[in-house]
Amino acid sequence: MNTVKSVRELRAAVAQARAEGKQIAFVPTMGNLHAGHAALVEKAAQRADFVVASIFVNPLQFGPNEDLESYPRTLLADQERLVAAGCHLLFTPDVAEMYPQGTDSQTRVSVTGVSEGLCGASRPGHFEGVATVVSKLFNMVQPDLAIFGQKDFQQLAVIRTLVRDLNMPIQIIGEPTVRAEDGLALSSRNGYLSAEQREVAPVLYRSLQEMAAAIKTGERDYAKLINTAQAQHSAAGFRSDYLEVRESNSLRPATAADRQLVILLAASIGNTRLIDNLAFDLDMPA
Ligand code: PAF
């Protein structure tokens, strides 16, 4: 695997792969890679001949009181994981390479609709930062397909909308969330949890499963299910940010008639904010 830091080197390496007739798959990341990222890269290696990954902790998508400075940077371990998963080219730009004119004067990409509410409400500017950096990375790499985790369900919806609305010829693939044995969704932020916090964290996914099971057996009083789950979260020491049932394609609040649903949550424990979701189709057998 070749690691490059400049857009010039990136374009040269991708152009060579293209000249060899290769299909290009792209996996953008912020590093501190875990088995969930490895699954995205493995999927990319199955679907294309040349796999490009990026590691860039994007300042544009962090709020003023968020963990930009402390976000874990683990390049050597990440490179090993990427090689093992089948990555061919790693792009690790610094902030000046990505934003040579500075971040303030950078043209922004703003996706309406699916960016609103949920994480869009609690992290103002976050999805604009994501949409902007992903647009730039797509223009730099020009992949045939790009792979994202479904753990960031709203982010995936934002990126699908962006690609559709800006006519980018890139296929977007969403991959299922990889979980620890006790159900906790893998996340770089799990590393912030103390042993006690890590022990109680599976309550989040457990409650999503219980809510989904109740909805599948006919319960449509979403507010009641949300209250029960939030009581479980707060008993475990979590502060709820949001917990909502939405229609999974449009991300609008779910009605009792909707069949494709996703339950999404964000909750904090100590200084760590975790997100998770569970999507299901009432017309599909479990
Ligand atoms: O999901 C992430 O790691 C980031 O939001 C992404 C898509 C790499 C953009 O910085």
TrEMBL record:
Positions of (R)-pantoate binding: 61, 155
A GO molecular-function descriptor: ATP binding
EC numbers on record: 6.3.2.1
Annotated metabolic or biological route of this protein: Cofactor biosynthesis; (R)-pantothenate biosynthesis; (R)-pantothenate from (R)-pantoate and beta-alanine: step 1/1
Residues annotated as catalytic: 37
Gene Ontology biological process terms, A to Z: pantothenate biosynthetic process
Biological role: Catalyzes the condensation of pantoate with beta-alanine in an ATP-dependent reaction via a pantoyl-adenylate intermediate.
Protein name: Pantothenate synthetase
